[in-house]
Each structure stands twice: as C-alpha cells, then as structure tokens.
Amino acid sequence: MADPKLQKEIRMISALPGAEGGFTLLEILAALLILALGVTTALGVFARGLGIEQGSELIHDSARLATLVQERYRNEGILGRVGEALPPPVQDALEPGFPGMKYDLRVEADPESASRVFLDLRVRWLRGGEEVGERYRFPMRRALPLSARIRALKERKG
Fold it and tell me: Which long-range contacts (CB under 8 A, 24 or more apart) does 52-60 make?
C-alpha cells in the first residue's frame, strides 16, 4: 500500500488550479498560426521552383530549335557559296514540334573572312503574357551543300 502522506500530497497537487493538463485555446491558436505560416512558405517555394523549372524547359527548347535551324542552314546549302548574295532575313517563322515558339533569323557577313557568316537567331515565346526570348549567334562557313560535298567525295574516290 502507498504511504497515506504521499497520497495526500498527490491530491493537493491535482487540486491546484490549472493542474488538469491540456492546452489553452490561445496555445492552440498560436500553434495553428505557426503551422499555417510554414505551409504557406513551403507552397510558395514549390510554386517558384515550378516556375523556374518551366522557364528552364522553354530555354532548353529554344536552344534545340536554334540548333535545328542552324543544322538546316548548314546541311541544305541555304547559305550559298562565297560571292553569292546572303539569304534574306526570316521573321516570325514557326517550326513544327515547337508550339508557341517563333524565331527571327538574319545572316550577316563576317567582315574579316569572306567565307564566314554569322547566323543571328532570336527565338521568342510567351511567358506570363509577356514575350520573352533567347538570342543565338552561330559562326558558319559558306561552302557546298552536303549533297554536293558527298557527290564530290564519291567522284574523288571512284
């Protein structure tokens, strides 16, 4: 059996006001406020991260589009030969597989080399209702088209 003196002390402590245990309404409200601030901050960070990820994906797509256009100009002989007129500028061109993206392209002669030109390409798209874009500049050589180079190589071998 428990000591009667100890039992009396336990009854006295439990009879003190506020000794019932639990939380007050003010403590619960403060905890909910802290939790709400934490959740709001976390959602803001996630939303910003999602926006950054989408923006970087668009920039990556614009680089792919620029490379595709560059390869087309190189392999299809669009640049022409040395001494020929430069191709005309292109405005607001669309490319299948790149929805919502447009590009502008200018071919500029290199003043230091007659055989070199620069492809100045600007890819544009809408983000948040505002037009944004990336600019790419590729140095390229004016030469024979790929098919003519292959034909010339076959003639040399055969």
Answer: 55/127, 58/125, 58/127, 59/134
What mean pLDDT comes out for the span 74-88? 84
pLDDT at 147 over 90: no
**In sequence order, what are the residues at sequence separation of 6 or more whose Cβ sits closer than 8 angstroms to the Cβ of residue 132?**
124, 125, 126
Q: How far apart are CA 51 and CA 130, in angstroms?
A: 14
Query: Is pLDDT above 80 for 67?
Result: yes
d(CA 126, CA 120): 20
Better pLDDT: 150 or 132: 132
41: pLDDT strictly greater than 80: yes
pTM of the complete model: 0.60
- Apex CA 104: angle with CA 85 and CA 89, to 5°? 20
Q: Write out the two tokens for 25.
A: 């309404």
φ/ψ of 129, rounded to 5, equals 80, 0
Task: State how far the Cα of 77 lies from the Cα of 81, in Å rounded to an integer.
Answer: 8
| Lookup result for tokens 């640049």 | 79
Torsion of CA 91, 96, 98, 104, to 10 degrees: -10
